[in-house]
Design goal:
The structure is a single chain. The chain is an alpha/beta fold. The chain has three domains: about 10-130, Chitobiase/beta-hexosaminidase domain 2-like (Chitobiase, domain 2); about 140-500, TIM Barrel (Alpha-Beta Barrel), CATH 3.20.20.80; about 525-570 and about 605-680, Alpha-Beta Complex (Alpha-d-glucuronidase, C-terminal Domain). The protein is about 35% helix and about 15% strand. An eight-stranded parallel β-barrel has the order 7-12-13-14-15-16-17-20. Helix 9 (about 295-305) links the parallel strand 14 (about 275-280) and strand 15. Helix 15 packs across helix 16 (about 505-515) and helix 20 (about 620-645) runs antiparallel to helix 21. The longest helix has about 35 residues, at about 650-680. It is globular.
Length: about 700
């Protein structure tokens, strides 16, 4: 690792427009001080001027004023229970002079980075008066970092960008200067919360709650300067592991008291601590099921302990049987989260956020949106995404996930495509942010859902380029920006990231980046798993093709390919009943092979290889065509990047070239293995006569 990491979307030149102007920062507060430091550095670098004043004094000749709104002039915006302060800001431009006003210094920080993103465009154009506020006060990144290097999963579980930014050699890093740079990057895109350790809490990591609490406080102090609150993932069995108790039964008084004392210690050391993240009864992690208790029992016991401090409990809904009998087709992993959590709607405390993966399986390149998001109208639900590319190329492949997330955020459970009333139906983003209009839910009538926010697994590490593949920075950028405003265009966000990351580069560079990344999610889907079938990866590390890798394992991730067809029957009529977990109209859309979208056909139906898709192609020919086309697209990606790579930094160009070469090798292997598998299963040749082995 180099001592100077890549600047990502905050290179010095990104501050040129601010740095060459007369700038005033007015107001006090810790984050106002951070804003002042950023402006002072930019103006010193580019020849502008900087003044730090009291609110409203001496700003007449400034070209940019960043000021706290004088008390009494505005009312703070609403925040969710457990959320941060009002982060809104007002942006006005008059005669080329810009004023950013915010009721709180957190809004001032976000206003600064808004001006940075706009660059010269902030000061050009007609007069403007805009108010900006985040869609939700809960915009979180979960870091699956281990304090000690795990013998199987390593320093960062599912991490593809080197070691941990937080830990080294079994302890919190002594030098946190790089973590400061990281916090600055996150603040620039609107992230305001981070969980700093793996949700699979091993013995060493459990000590962050007790012995290592002073070290956690050091980390929290770094993030505090950038308006970001720190959370910890905790083991449900902590009273046993750390407290010497014989049980972690959530209804046991001694267990509850242990957590009360633990919370008191944490908030005494870190007054702005955010709360706990819990993975329970999942993939071997302990939980309330061991004591015959529900997940609401477990979550609410913790919620009571943290409630005096306005703390949150993020309780993950990723609960399923990972010891399934592959012979038993009635057991369906996809059903599990709904079956466990739907009956508990309304049973969770107000400061519990149930964190739900976007799909029912496990961050696949294509899944239906999880019905749990629609099934718990009286529960705070957070949408969980995966920025780290576990099943989408592991940051060895260039795969921009902004379009996937935008599609998920815009999904409407109570309106089918083309429905004239769709605009009156809440989106997934509305359900997560509490901004949904009234809608009919299955069971309780009209409702307005409480806000839960967004969470995602981070993709960063101590690699020189933060994310391993330099282009994977675009995913972290897009995640933060979509959390702030889920309605943003992911294609425009890609261009925004490119413009900031490569300021002053020829237009050809930005055009090439767009050409490589804009449809790369679709490209990855083409050369990997077809029509929503999922997985087909090597067990364990999950990289590269292995069509039957999980087919006869306990993990419940099957495709059921035989000589006649492929896919999982998840209908209510003849299958597992999963389709019935959706409200109308999607229950009926997914139930019927005639109306099920092509891209999810094999997720919901077992069909013959000769089944004709809506596209007009048969299933088997679709498999062949998309896998050949996917490889051809990667070849074009390499051509586009090769043409402009001499125009960027040599080290970055070398890293990208190396990653693209691996992507082409891997895509070719995916194509050949998947096509060969289905040729041998079906006996049906490619109608175009291409080479299949």
């Amino acid at each position: 690792m180099t001592t100077t990491p890549h600047p990502a979307w905050l290179p010095d030149d990104a501050f040129t427009a601010i740095g060459r102007r007369r700038v005033v920062v007015a107001g006090d507060g810790a984050l106002a001080g951070t804003v002042a430091e950023e402006v002072a550095a930019a103006t010193a670098r580019f020849g502008g001027s900087f003044s730090r004043l009291e609110v409203g004094d001496g700003v007449a000749d400034a070209e940019l004023v960043l000021t706290l709104t004088p008390p009494g002039l505005t009312e703070p915006g609403p925040t969710e229970p457990g959320a941060d302060v009002d982060e809104s800001f007002r942006f006005t431009r008059e005669g080329g002079a810009v004023v950013v006003q915010a009721p709180c210094d957190a809004g001032l920080l976000h206003g600064l980075f808004h001006v940075v993103r706009l660059g010269e465009a902030a000061f050009d154009g007609p007069d403007a008066d805009e108010t900006h506020a985040p869609a939700t006060g809960l915009r979180m990144l979960d870091h699956w970092d281990n304090v000690a290097v795990h013998p199987v999963m390593g320093q960062v579980e599912r991490g593809y960008a080197g070691g941990s930014l937080f830990y080294d050699d079994g302890a919190v890093r002594a030098d946190l200067s790089r973590l400061e740079r990281y916090a600055r990057l996150l603040a620039a895109v609107g992230i305001n919360r981070v969980a700093i350790n793996n949700v699979n809490v091993h013995a060493r990591e459990a000590l962050l709650l007790t012995d290592d609490l002073p070290e956690v406080a050091r980390v929290a102090a770094v993030f505090r300067r950038w308006g970001i609150r720190v959370h910890l993932a905790v083991s449900f069995a902590s009273p046993i592991l750390l407290g010497g108790l014989a049980t972690s039964d959530p209804l046991d008084a001694d267990v509850a008291h242990w957590w009360v004392r633990a919370a008191a210690r944490v908030w005494t050391a870190i007054p702005d601590f955010g709360g706990f993240v819990v993975k329970a009864d999942s993939e071997g992690q302990p939980g309330p099921f061991a004591y015959g208790r529900t997940h609401a029992d477990g979550a609410n016991m913790l919620a009571a302990a943290v409630a005096p401090y306005d703390g949150l409990v993020h309780w993950r809904a990723f609960v399923y049987d990972h010891r399934q009998d592959w012979r038993d087709r009635s057991t369906d992993r996809a059903r599990a989260a709904y079956d466990h959590f739907r009956p508990l709607d309304g049973a969770f405390a107000d400061n519990v956020v149930v964190q739900v993966k976007y799909g029912p399986m496990d961050f696949q390149v294509r899944e239906p949106v999880s019905p749990v998001l629609a099934a718990m109208p009286r529960t705070r639900i957070a949408l969980e995404l995966q920025v780290t590319q576990e099943y989408t190329g592991q940051q060895r492949h260039a795969v921009y996930l902004g379009p996937q997330w935008s599609e998920i955020l815009g999904f409407r459970f109570w309106a089918a495509p083309g429905d004239a009333a769709a605009d009156d139906s809440p989106t997934v983003a509305d359900l997560a942010t509490g901004r949904g209009k009234a809608a009919e839910d299955p069971g309780t009538g009209a409702w307005r859902k409480p806000a839960g926010g967004f969470a995602a697994v981070s993709n960063t590490g101590d690699d020189e380029f933060w994310t391993g593949h330099p282009f994977a920075q675009a995913n972290l950028y897009a995640y933060g920006r979509l959390c702030w405003d889920p309605g943003l265009d992911p294609s425009a966000l890609l261009d925004e990231w490119a413009g900031l990351t490569f300021p002053g580069a020829p237009d050809a560079v930005r055009a090439a980046l767009h050409a490589v990344l804009d449809r790369s999610w679709e490209t990855y889907e083409q050369y990997t798993t077809p029509l929503g079938v999922g997985f087909m990866v090597r067990p364990g590390h999950h990289y590269g093709p292995d069509v039957d890798g999980y087919e006869y394992t306990p993990w419940g991730t099957y495709h059921f390919a035989d000589r006649d067809g492929i896919g999982v029957d998840r209908t209510t009529r003849t299958g597992t009943g999963y389709a019935g977990q959706y409200p109308s109209p999607w229950r009926e859309v997914y139930e019927s092979v005639e109306t099920c979208p092509d891209e999810l056909l094999l997720f919901f139906h077992h069909v013959p290889y000769t089944h004709v898709l809506h596209s007009g192609s048969t299933v088997i020919q679709h498999v062949y065509d998309t896998h050949f086309e996917g490889v051809e697209r990667v070849e074009r990606m390499i051509e586009a990047w090769s043409a402009v790579s001499p125009l960027v930094d040599e080290r970055l160009a070398e890293r990208v070239a190396e990653r693209l070469a691996e992507q082409l090798r891997s895509a070719t292997e995916w194509r050949d293995q998947v096509n060969t598998y289905f040729l041998r299963k079906s006996g049906i040749p490619d109608e175009r006569g291409r080479t299949i082995y």
